Amino acid sequence: QVQLVESGGGLVQAGGSLRLSCAASGRTFSTFSNYAMGWFRQAPGKEREFVAAIPSSSGVTWYADSAKGRFTISRDNAKNTLLLQMNSLKPEDTAVYYCAADQLFQRVRRQVADYWGQGTQVTVSS
């Protein structure tokens, strides 16, 4: 089993910033650096959507258009942690944010990753 635990969500005013973390662990979890990781979000009444993804190796990161220029995804392989720095937050960024992991990057991009966290709530007030 692999456990992913998100943290860092909260209530912030529009224009503010938050940094989300996703800690990975598990008895059967192989090397964290072998996994592609991603962030997704789901707002009330809406489908879950892709936010950002990062491959297992240092390489090109991917962002949804809504996240480009405001969000930065990164990973600390030494700490088995995925990060999402969110700046210039908008009320429409309000959602539950999930991290996901898979050994195949395309499975993360297609939202069919093997492992998912429970989510952390981000609320942006206007």
List keywords for this structure.
126 residues, mainly beta, single chain, 48% strand, seven-stranded mixed β-sheet, 4% helix, 1 helix, four-stranded antiparallel β-sheet
Q: Describe it for me?
A:
The chain has 1 helix and 11 strands. Strands 2, 4, 5, 6, 9, 10 and 11 form a 7-stranded mixed sheet that branches.
Task: Give a nutshell description of this structure.
Helices cover 4% and strands 48% of the residues.
Strand content: over 45%
Helix fraction by DSSP (H/I, runs of at least 4): under 10%
Shape: globular
Number of helical elements: 1
How are helices and strands ordered from N to C? Answer: EEEEEEEEEHEE
Structural category is: mainly beta
Oligomer: single chain
Report the span from N to C terminus: 40 Å
